[in-house]
Amino acid sequence: MSQATKRKHVVKEVLEEYVVPSPQQQIVRVLGTPGNNLHEVETAEGTRFLVSMPTKFRKNIWIKRGDFLLVDPIEEGEKVKAEINFVLYKDHVQYLKKEGLWPEAFSDTAESQPSSEAREGEQTAARFSGEEDSDNDSDLFVNTNRLHYSCTESEDDSDEEAAAVASDQDEEEK
Asked: What's the burial of 103, exposed, middle or buried (CB within 10 Å: 0-12/13-18/19+)?
């Protein structure tokens, strides 16, 4: 199977399937990524540990801080205590809430931090279904690495600047 075909199947599985956690599986929230395909997570009870990303997800699915995962425990792990089984996006979280399987400790954070990949998946689904929603700008990417400056100009300032530019141009012509 080619890399592109594999990626297509993995992404389709993650975006379209709805899973119900088995009794040994846990729902966890990602706190950070120390590297080497490891992610620091927190359970609903507040326990923190590392989880590993299986090779099928590597370079196919991206996980960031605040995302939710479904993990399988690893018995022999000291630091790494689980392996990622499924990445839960906004629509998966809503499904689990509707089924009554969502942990109460995560109820407030799931609604306030929707995943960017979930938004991308919704955009892709809307594009393929032919739906266009040009009035809603919430799906636009916002670069959180840049500071947001709000600038306001009064009409007096702009008139003074225009007069100064005009006088500079007059002096250059002479």
From this structure: middle
